[in-house]
Amino acid sequence: MDRDPDSGLSAIGQALAILGDRWVLLILQRAFLLRIRTYAGWRDALPISESVLATRLKELVGHDIFTLVAYRDGRTRYEYRLTPRGLDLWSLLVAIYSWERDWTGRQEAPFIHDVCGQEARPYLACGDCRKPMSARDTETIRGPLATFSRVGLPRQHRRTVRGDTGVDAYAYCPDSMEILGDRWSTTVLAAAFLGTRRFVDFQAELGIAPSVLTDRLRRFVELDVFRLVAGDYRLTEKGLAFFEVFAFLVDWAQRELAAPPGSGLTITHRPCGAALAPVFLCTACTQPLERREVHFELG
User: Fold this and answer.
1) Please, what is the angle between helix 11-19 and helix 22-33, to 10°?
2) How many Cβ atoms are within 10 Å of 162's Cβ, its own excluded?
3) Positive/negative CA dihedral, 19, 24, 29, 32
4) pTM of the entire structure?
5) How far apart are CA 136 and CA 233, in angstroms?
6) What is the pLDDT of residues 223-273, one digit of tens each?
7) Could you tell me which of 225, 220, 249, 247 has the C-alpha nearest to residue 237?
8) How many CB atoms lie within 10 A of CB 232?
9) What's the rounded Cα separation, in Å, for the pair 249 and 101?
10) What gap in Å lies between CA 117 and CA 203, rounded to an integer?
11) CA distance 84 to 77
């Protein structure tokens, strides 16, 4: 299954519906980091119920992020392999890793660039001019149908209660899960990157229930992602730094997911005028980081 052509959702809205769930993110993380491919592997690695795991895997197959492949182990079994679309999410997961390393005080496993042999410490750059890029260096133009009311979908499954995903050496930190583990939280932050600041404007843009919006804004202030100034919710440096994750999410969504004409975002790198094409460069050698040329030194 690909996208629902009648959903009317922007590509970014579809991406939030697919990825704005902490179990999905943890399943993908384990697939990349620990190379887990089987139902039993995820069941043993995550504190997840069998029914929830089965549902999430079915959805990821349906969205062409995993594909089922048969193999023989005495009898025919099946494993879940990342498709090219799924493999392309690697940069998004590295962006989460980088933000956690820089802004949550978490001691992450060293990320080694095999080309130069040094710790990579990836940083976001423009794919055209290869200069470092941040939220402040970009300009965004919305298509005529790129309203945030087109982001929301009916809730597909119960929102995961905070803290019930367990804590281990590989789990994302709570700050990341507060932002990415829920589609409304990610949508609120995306609206902030596009200049939304006031409660009434978030509500009008997102079509979100006031109680839900109040909860998400409160959490973001507690996390030091927003600060409240004279009624405006303004991004802090910590919040602005999450632009790396947003950039790769938007890039993946608009390349991989079909959407109605005019519902996209045009993001340009102001210093060179090029369209958004985010890349990660290695701090040590300034060369692009490719998925097959890096590894984590896991303890």
Assistant:
1) 80
2) 13
3) negative
4) 0.89
5) 17
6) 999 999 999 999 999 999 999 999 999 999 999 999 889 888 999 999 999
7) 225
8) 13
9) 19
10) 48
11) 22
